[in-house]
Write a structure and sequence with these properties.
Distance between the termini: 50 Å
Shape: globular
Mean pLDDT: 93
Strand content: 15-25%
Helix content: 25-40%
Oligomer: single chain
Number of helices: 13
Structural class: alpha+beta
Radius of gyration: 22 Å
Length: 487
């Protein structure tokens, strides 16, 4: 297969890939064994933002990004296009690790990051359709309204005002998003809608302009951290003894070995495919669809005039946006987790799940009943055992890490990349003291416990949503699950 043939094949990955203005012909692969200062596995948002900030801070660094397919092949090019200040871990759990001040600092850093993504993409000439219209989480029924009120009350407890979270009544909510059964909403100004594939592809070009190298169609077979050798005498390790030598880390690929002082695997849900990493993140699939471009009279009935992103307060996440070309892109969870953390292109499209997404979309917006769906796609995202993303760097081994965003990674990966760059360059900044830095999540259970547990949570949330819609009362079982994670 030629590079041009491969480029045409990548076009069908998602609506976003189909909307790319230029060719998707892959870049050249790794030409053979080489040595760099920093080797990054994965040309998605995390890997590319890290490379970008490293080169921006220190243009002398040799930075190589190794990508199995093409930049933006994975979740970074297929997601819902929400550049948000959302974080999958509650302020209460953040405060448990970093105190109330740490929780507030994390939220403010995420809010600032939403604006920074727009500013940095504009500075680099990346036309990704960034529009900061905020986000609206609809409350549809009494149980969802109770949760919406609790979210806003929690925000006030931590000192966050209406700009971070505000409560709308039914009439105010309907002026933003005119869905069925709306009884209120939570809204935040800190979210932008964008085209993720255009952003990630433009970011790869920005890394190259700043002197980094992106090798595509270069699969990493293993990632091996380096070792700091300390002086040993007769089997005794002497403390407070300077290192005698440092063996660099290695990324072994199908085209050669890259030796580097710092190695960062930045592959999210694909991490399970690397040897020894199967239980760190569970690859959970999220699927999407997109309608044909909608006429103005249909948008007048739906709303979203400011391109706010939208969801509702159900347990099994759904999410949507009005695209730059006037479509409605809509996605959600519900696809099964596959035994052994397996990932496969066959899991990107599941007829049952896509049919359910369309049914949900029409239930929310009946005007879409006869509208054509032109694109269906999906991809996996990385879920840590405690739903708590993290970043870090171990100088002794040269191993860095970042990820586990549970689907909230478009903005968070920008903050992660800046933070990893700070840590690698030994910079003491406000970012390096945030509560997600240097923490390690507990590993997932081995099979069959992992398979049973992840799919049981999906079933639980599906049942909880149905029960709440029928009774109007919050699900005790769903609440108990979130408490089990420490919330």
């Amino acid at each position: 297969m030629t590079a041009t043939d491969a480029g045409r094949a990548y076009r069908g990955l998602s609506l976003w890939h189909d909307r790319l203005p230029g060719p998707l012909d892959p870049r050249a692969p790794l030409p053979g064994d080489t040595a760099v200062d920093v080797a990054i596995v994965g040309a998605g948002f995390t890997g590319l933002w890290t490379a970008y900030w490293l080169r921006r801070a220190d243009p002398s660094l040799r930075v190589a990004v190794l990508e199995r397919e093409v930049a933006g092949f994975g979740a970074s090019g297929r997601n819902g296009g929400w550049c948000s200040a959302l974080f999958p871990t509650s302020w209460r759990r953040l405060a448990r690790d970093g105190g109330a001040d740490g929780a507030r600092a994390m939220q403010r850093a995420l809010e600032e990051t939403v604006a920074a993504v727009g500013r940095d993409s504009a500075d680099e000439g990346i036309d990704c359709g960034y529009v900061r219209g905020g986000t609206v989480s609809l409350a549809r029924g009494p149980a969802q309204l109770a949760r919406a009120r609790a979210h806003v009350a929690d925000a006030r407890t931590y000192g966050f005002g209406p700009d971070t979270l505000d409560l709308l009544d039914a009439e105010q909510a309907m002026r933003r998003v005119s869905a069925t059964r709306v009884s209120g909403a939570v809204t935040s100004a800190h979210c932008a809608a964008l085209d993720p594939a255009r952003l990630v592809r433009g970011l790869a070009e920005a890394v190259e302009r700043r002197g980094g190298t992106v090798y595509e169609r270069t699969a990493a077979l293993s990632v091996q951290p380096g070792r700091e050798a300390v002086e040993r005498r007769g089997g005794t390790v002497f403390e407070r003894t300077a290192a005698l030598s440092v063996e660099p880390g290695r990324v072994v690929t199908e085209h050669g070995t890259v030796r580097a002082d710092v190695v960062l695997p930045a592959v999210e849900g694909y991490l399970a495919q690397l040897p020894g990493r199967r239980r760190e993140l569970a690859p959970v699939y999220s699927l999407m669809l997109a309608t044909e471009p909608l006429p103005d009279e249909v948008w007048a009935q739906i709303g979203l005039a400011d391109r706010a992103t939208f969801t509702d307060e159900r347990h099994l996440t759904v999410y949507g946006q009005r695209t730059p070309d006037g479509r409605l892109a809509f996605g959600g969870r519900g696809a099964p987790y596959h035994w052994g953390s397996k990932v496969s292109p066959a899991y990107d499209r599941v007829e049952r799940v896509h049919a359910s997404l369309r049914e949900t979309l029409v239930e929310m917006f009946p005007v879409l009943r006869d509208v054509a769906v032109t694109h269906t796609w999906g991809g996996n995202l990385g879920v840590p055992r405690d739903w708590f993303p993290s970043v870090g760097f171990e100088p002794a081994t040269g191993l860095a890490w970042a990820g586990g965003y549970v689907g909230d990674g478009v903005a968070t990966s920008h903050l992660a990349g800046r933070t990893v760059a700070d840590l690698v360059l030994r910079r003491d900044t406000a970012r390096t003291h945030l509560p997600w830095v240097r923490r390690r999540a507990k590993r997932w259970e081995p099979e069959p416990l992992r398979w049973a547990g992840v799919n049981a949570v999906t079933a639980l949330m599906t049942h909880a949503d149905r029960t709440e819609a029928r009774t109007g009362r919050p699900s005790r079982a769903a609440a108990a699950f979130w408490r089990s994670l420490g919330d």
